[in-house]
Each structure stands twice: as structure tokens, then as C-alpha cells.
Amino acid sequence: MLQVTDVQRTFKSGDTTVTAVGGVNFKIPEGKFASIVGQSGSGKTTLLSLLGGLDKPTSGSIEVDGQDITKMHDHQLIGYRCRKIGFVFQQYNLVPNLTAIENVMLPMEFAKVPVAKRQARAKELLAQVELSEDQMKRKPGRLSGGQQQRVAIARALANSPALILADEPTGNLDSQTGKMIFDLLHSLSRSQNTTIVVVTHDLSIAGKTDKVFRLKDGKLVR
Ligand SMILES: Nc1ncnc2c1ncn2[C@@H]1O[C@H](COP(=O)(O)OP(=O)(O)OP(=O)(O)O)[C@@H](O)[C@H]1O
Ligand SMILES: [Mg+2]
């Protein structure tokens, strides 16, 4: 369960204060698939960063499995991100000089998983996102956008996170590939009871999720 209570995030720039997220409340039960929609600048990325512990709110609390991550120290947050969260970004963010398998193995290395197990799990996850044995051995530059995003999803799943956070994961893909990535995320949330929060501009995608949160100027609207 993810519970967000009165979360606010403001940024100071010079004399002015920008309210990126202005007092947001919501709950997402475990295993549900939620989407966040809203215009550019409405606070979607800021909110996602707060949920993932990449940033801290100015006020409010964010509870994940009963633990308030806003009260964690930095070293605790690093552990939280590593073990509990899988991130998927619009630009894939793969390490260019590592192969697909090595990219998926990386978060497991941070989690101190033994090397043989890392390799076996990376292969299993890449097979699950339907990459061929040959594609697994390639570096990102030699894979298509959709294939790179599937590697990024496999990497996000590496440490069996409770929560997957995806910021415009289909934004760089054609609509058919985007739908395939989305269906993949959907089936993962079902099969592994993973909670997923996805930011998207695509209303046809958002319409198929369990819950849709619409942000406007940093606030949730109906
Ligand atoms: N570090 C920062 N310093 C100052 N202002 C910021 C900072 N980060 C974000 N903002 C502002 O907060 C608001 C929300 O930004 P955010 O990136 O969350 O929007 P978004 O909904 O993700 O937009 P997009 O759809 O374009 O990605 C914007 O007005 C932005 O300029
Ligand atoms: Mg954004």
C-alpha cells in the first residue's frame, strides 16, 4: 500500500516560490496499476520523484508498506530505492557500454546478489520481456527503442520491487510498441502483485489503468 498524505513540494528560485506539488492526497492498494496524467509542468515528474525517494517533500508524508520514507535518512533511502523501487524512464537510461544482460545484472550487484544468481535472473527476466538470446548480448546502441525499453523494464524488476515507477515509459515509442510496453507492465502487476505508477500523456493508456490521477498546477483534480 502506498499512502500519500498532504504532500507538498516547493522550489525557491530567487524571490519566487514555485509550488510543483501543492498538497496531494491519495492511496494506491498493493498490486494496483495507477496512472498520473496532466499537462506539462503540472508536477507529474516531481510527484514520481517523491514517491521513489529521489527527492524529499517540503511537507507531508509518503508511506510505503507502513514506512514513512520522508523520515528516512539518506543512507536508508538508498536502500529503499535499491530494494523496493524499480524505475523506468522515457529515455531508457541504460548504461551504453554494458550489454542488455549486464544492465539487468547491475541493480542486483548493488543488492549484493551472488554473480551466478544475477546472471541467471537477468536472463530469465529478459526472456520474460521477450528478448532473444542474441539481443541479450547486445549493447543498447544495437537495440531498437522498444527493445531498450524492455531491457529497462527487466532491469526495474531485477530486485523484485514492491513498486514500479515509470515516467512516460512509452513517450519515445510508436503507438503499437507503446501499447506492447504498457501491456507488459500490466501483466507484471497482475502476475507479481507489483504496484505500478505510470506517468503518461496518452489518455488511451491511462484509461486502462485501475486508477487515474489527474494533476493540474500541482493539485489533484477530478
Ligand atoms: N528543481 C526545480 N527547481 C525549480 N522549479 C522546478 C524544479 N523542478 C520542477 N520545477 C517546476 O515545477 C513544476 C512541475 O514540474 P514537473 O517536472 O514535475 O512537471 P511535469 O508534469 O513532469 O511536466 P512534463 O510533462 O513537461 O514532464 C514546473 O513548473 C517546473 O518548472
Ligand atoms: Mg515530467
Detail the topology: elements first, then pairings:
Blueprint lengths: L1 E12 L2 E13 L4 E6 L5 H8 L7 E6 L2 E2 L5 H11 E4 L11 H11 L4 H14 L4 H4 L8 H13 L5 E5 L7 H18 L2 E5 L3 H4 L4 E6 L2 E3 L1
Parallel strand pairs: 3-8, 3-9, 6-7, 7-8
Antiparallel strand pairs: 1-2, 1-4, 4-5, 9-10
Helix pairs in contact: 3-4, 3-6, 4-6, 6-7
The structure holds adenosine-5'-triphosphate and magnesium ion.
Adenosine-5'-triphosphate binds next to strand 1, strand 2 and helix 1.
What do these coordinates show?
With 222 residues, the chain is of the alpha/beta class. The protein contains eight helices and ten strands. The protein has a single domain (2-221), classed as Rossmann fold (3-Layer(aba) Sandwich). The longest helix is centred in the last third of the chain and has 18 residues, at 175-192. The protein is globular and about 50 Å long.
Q: Could you state the CATH homologous superfamily?
A: P-loop containing nucleotide triphosphate hydrolases
CATH architecture: 3-Layer(aba) Sandwich
What's the main sheet like? 6 strands, mixed
Q: How is the quaternary structure best described? A: single chain
What's the CATH first level?
Answer: Alpha Beta
Strand content: 25-35%
Q: Span from first to last CA?
A: 22 Å
In percent, how helical is the residue content?
Answer: 25-40%
Mean pLDDT, as a whole number?
94
Order of adjacent strands in the largest pleated sheet: 6-7-8-3-9-10
Shape: globular
Query: What small molecules does this complex bind?
Result: adenosine-5'-triphosphate, magnesium ion
Order of helices and strands: EEEHEEHEHHHHEHEHEE
Number of helices: 8
Low-confidence stretches: none
CATH topology: Rossmann fold
